[in-house]
């Protein structure tokens, strides 16, 4: 395989739109392949999930899990983490990128949860996005994973998969999000976030997509997919 192909693939332009008839088979095949469409972040409560997702911005799930497996046994409530203080929290999350800013945001979030929400993670977008470090993507993850709402959090993987496959093309995250919510069959929408992110993380990778092992090869509109059949 040529280096030129590998270099260009990460910045692949949007593919042609996937035909409507192929959208349901696309998700049926992903569902057959990905038996557990769940987040790879470790958590045991809605609050632990919220903190983990805040910490995961521009960081890997692996690095977050390493930090939280030490943090949560010591502090896994808004009150307990607030008691640690910013410096105390930093000592647990310093292996994560941008840990200084994230520690500040998590402490602010804990304070707001206690003072405004009775230490309970809100189940609506407006209140979630009022918390420090919680933007639209983080709110979507929490609403979907914790509360089973039909939201679509578009990260780097999902943005790539949407554009490359032709499932949902767009130049911005919000455009791709809206197109995904519009096109995904209702019975797959709750799990679609995890189907797409796991597919993007392990199969439809940025520079070397494993097209030869792709369960949705036939439905995918990526024009260069035949060049990656051996992967």
UniProtKB/TrEMBL annotation:
Binds 1 [4Fe-4S] cluster. One of its GO terms (biological process) is base-excision repair, AP site formation. Keywords: 4Fe-4S, DNA damage, DNA repair, DNA-binding, Endonuclease, Glycosidase, Hydrolase, Iron, Iron-sulfur, Lyase, Metal-binding, Nuclease. It catalyses: 2'-deoxyribonucleotide-(2'-deoxyribose 5'-phosphate)-2'-deoxyribonucleotide-DNA = a 3'-end 2'-deoxyribonucleotide-(2,3-dehydro-2,3-deoxyribose 5'-phosphate)-DNA + a 5'-end 5'-phospho-2'-deoxyribonucleoside-DNA + H(+). One of its GO terms (molecular function) is metal ion binding. Gene3D superfamilies: Helix-hairpin-Helix base-excision DNA repair enzymes (C-terminal), Hypothetical protein, domain 2. [4Fe-4S] cluster binds at residues 204, 211, 214, 220. Its cofactor is [4Fe-4S] cluster. Transmembrane segments: none annotated. Pfam families: EndIII_4Fe-2S (PF10576), HHH (PF00633), HhH-GPD (PF00730). Residues 1-21 are annotated as: Disordered. Residues 55-202 form the HhH-GPD domain. Its EC number is 4.2.99.18. NCBIfam families: nth (TIGR01083). DNA repair enzyme that has both DNA N-glycosylase activity and AP-lyase activity. The DNA N-glycosylase activity releases various damaged pyrimidines from DNA by cleaving the N-glycosidic bond, leaving an AP (apurinic/apyrimidinic) site. The AP-lyase activity cleaves the phosphodiester bond 3' to the AP site by a beta-elimination, leaving a 3'-terminal unsaturated sugar and a product with a terminal 5'-phosphate. Belongs to the Nth/MutY family. This is Endonuclease III. It comes from Psychrobacter aquaticus CMS 56. The gene is nth.
